[in-house]
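Both lines are retained for reference:
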Amino acid sequence: MKWLFVIPCLWLSLGWFCYGVQAAPLQEPTVSAQSAVVIDGFTGEVLFEKNADQQRSMASTTKIMTTLLALEQNDPNREIVTTKEMVTVEGSGMGLLAGDHVTLQGLCYGMMLASGNDAANTVALSLSNSFEEFAEKMNQKAKQIGMRNTRFVTPSGLDADGHYSTAYDMATLMQYALNNPDFCKISQTVSTRVTYGNPPYERKLTNHHRLLKEYDGCLGGKTGFTKKSGRCLVTAARRNGATLICVTLSAPDDWNDHKSLLDYGFAQMESVTISPRAFDLPVVGGTVPKIPVTYQALQVSIPSAHRSKLSVQTQIAPFLYAPIEADETVGIQGVFFDGRLLMSTPITAVDSAKQLPPAPSFWEQFWQNLCRWLLP
């Protein structure tokens, strides 16, 4: 890494940015939800909110957190034998009985697709000694990822005193979850077959999230309902490079709420291209005095109202030391939004630069000169 002693510099030439067409002013949708929010899943910017920080029970959307904690064990094939305490629970389930054999991965599908309370309880008691201990793990994780108005009590989302979150916090949770490839795969699964039981046999599980079939670009999410919480829904969707997260709590018409809210959110997004640029850098100790370097184009979708928060930073040394190979990484081109790195691409050498041979020593020069004088 010959370029780590860099001098960061901020380049803001507008010629590097190619923006999409800005949409006309939009009218906010009317929604049935008591609390709602839409955020840009990339930058975290809020595109719509209604009582987004109001604390409310969130029902089975809780299982997003329980699934994440299970997946972060990085042991999907771990086999668990269920106990009566694990599977004795009211509400929806994946059909577990005491003594069943099931993998941790199977439980994750059971939570996210079938909304299995039995699966959530099994995860909790297989990863902790009690529900209280597991709830503490949930709350620690919530604090770590920035959920400031949330307190978990149950792993399944069944109502309990002091079990609450907000629409904004649940969007924050989903934004974090989308960084986990295993979670994304499970969340987008419409239906699958999972093997469990005693002896294990194959069962079909179907995702309760209707928008996987009804909304173009839907990445899934989680449904939830209790009498206290009402209908709760978390949805992620991706279109034209933009990822949005929508959350509604206590929403009688949640499916239509999410369709209109996501449409409203996507209408606010625009694509920005950071154009590629080639430039020369001096080379010290090389067979050539300079070499061209370049980087690939970058494309990002951001809320059009906040384009001024976008910047490009180029991190590279003012010169390079030979030898340099063609395609060697010599710096980094970063795209930042409000000071946060969104994406980066390497700056690479277009050509190579060989190292000059070392200068001859005094005695080598003496003998060379002597030979020239003595020899005709």
Q: What stands out?
A: The CA atoms of residues 129 and 372 lie 88 Å apart.
